[in-house]
């Protein structure tokens, strides 16, 4: 939703400067999906829930108490809108690496992801990296939370050794709280023993 909010604000400012009244244009999400909506609330309209606007490439004039969205499609963009889109940063890139059970050792096949991440990061000036560690459901939840953090820190350490600046990397451990593949407790699952790395 970040691209929607940032772009909508830019359009509203440009419309105000032209004395045409504020307007908003919704875009796809960063991952290319079109899910989500935006509520427009004006306290003077007596509608505490506001008006809901949804849909990719939907333009709405923010005047009156009942904004009316209009789908314009990608081909209906104005030149200044297209220029703003072209200036947006690229969408985040995601990398997933898997681990040997109950360790911070990468599973076979995940080593190559370090090199791919290195190439992508170097081709993206000013990027920041978020590393999130996870576990499967084997073991106690408190133990898995610590293990997931250690996995995230392990990947951070390897990236720093490759020359990645420490200041652009954040790490978080979420244990078994967000399973990629839902399983019962005490179930080994290689797809859940992972770190997810987001480059944005």
- Uncertain regions: pLDDT < 50 for 5+ in a row? 1-19
Strand residues, percent: 15-25%
Order of helices and strands: HEEEEEHEHEHEE
Largest sheet: 4 strands, mixed
Query: What's the pLDDT, averaged over the residues?
Result: 86
- Structural class, by secondary structure, is alpha+beta
Overall spatial form: elongated
Q: Whole-Å distance between the termini?
A: 14 Å
Secondary structure: number of strands: 9
What is the count of DSSP helices, taking H or I runs of 4+ residues? Answer: 4
Rounded to the nearest angstrom, the radius of gyration is 22 Å
Main sheet: which strands, in order across? 6-9-7-8
Classify the helix fraction into a percent range: 25-40%
Offer a few descriptive terms:
alpha+beta; four-stranded mixed sheet; 4 helices; 200 residues
């Amino acid at each position: 939703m970040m691209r929607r909010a940032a772009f909508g604000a830019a359009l509203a400012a440009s419309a105000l400067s032209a004395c045409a009244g504020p307007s908003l244009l919704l875009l796809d999400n960063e991952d290319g999906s079109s899910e989500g909506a935006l509520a427009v609330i004006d306290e003077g309209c007596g509608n505490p829930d506001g008006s809901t606007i949804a849909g990719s490439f939907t333009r709405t004039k923010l005047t009156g108490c009942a904004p009316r969205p209009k789908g314009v499609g990608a081909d209906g963009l104005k030149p200044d809108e297209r220029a703003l889109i072209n200036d947006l940063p690229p969408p985040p890139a995601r990398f997933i690496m898997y681990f040997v059970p109950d360790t911070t050792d990468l599973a076979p096949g995940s080593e190559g992801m370090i090199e791919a991440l290195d190439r992508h990061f170097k081709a993206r000036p000013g990027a920041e990296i978020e590393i999130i560690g996870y576990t499967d459901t084997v073991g106690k939840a408190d133990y898995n939370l610590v293990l997931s953090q250690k996995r995230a820190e392990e990947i951070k350490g390897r990236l720093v050794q490759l020359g990645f600046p420490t200041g652009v990397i954040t790490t978080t451990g979420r244990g078994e709280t967000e399973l990629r593949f839902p399983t019962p407790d005490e179930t080994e699952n290689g797809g859940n023993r992972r770190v997810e790395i987001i480059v944005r």
